[in-house]
Design goal:
heterodimer; A: 287 residues; mainly alpha; MetI-like fold; two-stranded antiparallel sheet; 2 strands; B: alpha+beta; Rossmann fold; OB fold (Dihydrolipoamide Acetyltransferase, E2P); 2 domains; six-stranded mixed sheet; 8 helices; 24% helix; transmembrane helix (chain A); MetI-like_sf (chain A); membrane (chain A)
């Protein structure tokens, strides 16, 4: 047996310090707020776990959490299959490869609030290109400031437009790494297109798809800017996702204690789901 | 099982090939007899993989036809040709067990599970992988993976031909010979036609009954390993097969006598054809001996390769190797070289141009 060299920890130290300053220390202040009540002037009263109880029992939180899961579920169920389908139909070599890749990357390069503003204008019922077309050409009554369904359709469509590319690029990277011999062998073995997808392409894409789903889960679960700019959480509370609700509590009502408790619960849920998913997906690789 | 005929095949990867050099296959006419063990031997880029892919149906040739038992299959897709191919890198279906991997080609063709089980068990036993049948194929070592991909080819009854595209490239050296003898054994058991593509002469010569040597998109010689060694039809074959390869000496002809510089060299027999073009003498190092008389040369290098000694000499600026046994001369020694007459041949523009004199021997 080789003795293990513990010196490697020394090299991780700079990162640890960095993480401490940009994540751990700010988070400790949140922990600090979450167990106390303050009325300003740096006067704090010990509150224990009251805020956590209050948040976990609040209908408002349950509703926002439900909407959040619904949103994340919808965009994943659309973006992952759509991304795979687009990646499968992209050319593997030749002139069109860079063209496709650049076109695919474009939406991801646009800042979040710009995406929100773009879609806001795009869907305005009387002057927006899409809004005008739906209302005045197709005669569909579409106004996301009035209709919760229209608002949901719009934010989900916007997210699909913005982030499907990420899934496409990752899935495509997985696809191009498959050697030709696999396809040739499958042809000789008489495999159908579905079998090729099921037994060659999907297994080879598994790692990148795991990453894609994780990234899309975390990003969509924490989404704030785009729906905030697009709908502001309305109409009513219909598109008030967790982070929008959190900001309302923290900065709108200035309830720092409950907001801090909610942040920690929010963080714990994100972490737990990511961990569960990753553990399940990578389980058979170890055996 | 079938006899495979390649008729005036030409293939180019360019859409409109203009010159001969744009053809990956220049013109190939070949017959593969049913049940034969063939090797396709040649350096990288000589067109052997192209030829293989044309036979398997992964490529459609630019010109010419492929016949299986006289039936034209040129435009049939691979799965309808009933052929099998083993690739350079083992192709296995990672998510399946070894059993499912072997069963895959049969299930795709709609065989019932009883037949599948029977065939898979038989093949697994032949390949000695029965104990791995229920493990996931992803975790196997490269040589076992390659065995499984061979198995997927052999599992179908009556495959017309099994083709191997440099199948031992990723296998550890100590396992190579094992897998190679397994292949040979499999050939004797299943009696299918096998074509083995390689650039390694040892692999080709040990596996095959007939070796097809290719160079620059052309077949230069077809023969048994012994024929290729003893009577190379082209200087390329002489050079490519054998270690060290055949000695090639530039020469001139004076009244049908080959002259190396000012030294006449006795050939195996009369020269046929017009003999216009570049003339060269070819003689294998095994048939060059050191003597007290003959072609004067200087020893430039002596290497002991174990079983024998390779003496590298310089005669009039040309390098000549001699394989000898016994005490070697020292480097720098002046020696005389003798060529065994019945193994000394003349090549014109690379092609053999002398006829052996059987009566003389």
């Amino acid at each position: 047996m080789k003795t293990e060299n513990q010196k490697a920890w020394f090299f991780v130290l700079p990162v640890l310090i960095l993480v401490a300053f940009n994540a751990l220390i700010p988070m400790m202040t949140v922990v600090n707020y979450s167990v106390q009540e303050t009325f300003g002037d740096n006067v704090f009263f010990w509150q224990g776990l009251d805020w956590f109880q209050q948040i976990l029992r609040s209908d408002r939180f349950h509703a926002a959490l439900g909407r959040q899961f619904m949103f994340t579920f919808l965009i994943l169920i659309i973006e992952i299959p759509l991304g795979i389908a687009i990646a499968l139909s992209m050319p593997r070599k030749g002139f069109w490869v860079p063209v496709c890749l650049v076109l695919m990357a474009l939406p991801m390069l646009i800042p979040w609030n710009v995406v929100g503003a773009m879609w806001n204008i795009f869907t305005l019922p009387d002057i927006g290109l899409l809004g005008y077309f739906l209302n005045h050409v197709l005669g569909i009554n579409y106004d996301m400031t009035q209709d919760p369904v229209a608002a949901w359709v719009t934010i989900v469509t916007m997210d699909v437009w913005h982030w499907t590319s990420l899934v496409v690029l990752l899935a495509y990277a997985g696809l191009v790494s498959i050697p030709d011999a696999y396809y040739q062998a499958a042809k000789i073995d008489g495999a159908s297109n579905w079998s090729v997808f099921r037994f060659i392409q999907l297994p080879k894409m598994k790692t990148v798809l795991t990453i894609a789903i994780l990234l899309r889960f975390m990003d969509s679960f924490n989404i704030y800017t785009e729906p905030f700019v697009l709908t502001g959480g309305g109409p009513g509370n219909s598109t008030t996702l967790l982070s929008i609700d959190l900001v309302k509590i923290a900065l709108g009502q200035f309830d720092l204690g409950p907001a801090a408790a909610m942040s920690l619960i929010y963080f714990a849920i994100t972490l737990l789901v990511s961990w569960l998913f990753y553990t399940v997906m990578t389980k058979d690789d170890q055996t | 099982m079938a006899k495979i005929t390649l008729s005036t095949l030409r293939h180019s990867y360019y859409p409109n090939p203009k010159s001969d050099s744009e053809y990956a296959l220049k013109e190939v006419d070949l017959d593969w007899t049913d049940g034969g063990a063939y090797a396709l031997l040649g350096p990288s880029g000589c067109g052997k993989s192209t030829l293989l892919n044309i036979i398997s149906g992964l490529l459609v040739p630019s010109e010419g036809k492929i016949l299986f038992d006289g039936k034209d299959v040129t435009h049939l897709p691979p799965d309808q040709r009933n052929i099998a191919q083993v690739f350079q890198f083992p192709v296995i279906y990672d998510t399946m067990t070894v059993y499912d991997n072997l069963a895959f080609p049969l299930r795709n063709r709609g065989r019932d599970e009883d037949t599948v089980r029977e065939r898979v068990m038989a093949i697994a036993e032949m390949l000695e992988v029965t104990d791995m049948l229920n493990t996931r194929a992803a975790g196997l070592s490269p040589d076992n993976k390659q065995k499984i991909s061979m198995g997927r080819g052999l599992v179908r009854e009556d495959v017309n031909v099994v083709m191997f595209d440099e199948p031992l490239t990723v296998i550890d050296p100590h396992l190579k010979w094992k897998l190679r003898s397994k292949l040979k054994e499999l050939h004797q058991r299943v009696k299918a036609t096998m074509i083995y593509v390689t650039h390694d002469q040892t692999e080709a010569l040990t596996f095959a009954d007939q070796v097809v040597v290719m160079q620059l998109g052309e077949v230069v010689q077809i023969g048994t390993p012994v024929e290729l060694f003893e009577r190379p039809a082209h200087t390329f074959v002489g050079h490519f097969i054998g270690s060290p390869g055949m000695n090639i000496l530039p020469c001139t002809l004076q009244n049908s006598v080959a002259m190396f510089g000012d030294q006449p060299v006795a050939l195996e027999g009369p020269i046929h054809g017009s003999a216009n073009g570049t003339t060269e003498i070819g003689v294998r190092p095994e048939f060059v001996s050191l003597s007290t008389a003959g072609l004067p040369a200087t020893v430039t290098k002596v290497s002991d390769v174990g079983r024998h000694i390779v003496v590298e000499c310089n005669a009039q600026g040309t390098k000549i190797n001699a394989v000898i046994e016994g005490t070697p001369p020292a480097k720098g020694d002046a020696v005389h070289l003798q060529f065994r007459q019945d193994q000394t041949r003349l090549y014109v523009d690379g092609w053999l141009a002398t006829t052996a004199q059987e009566a003389a021997a």
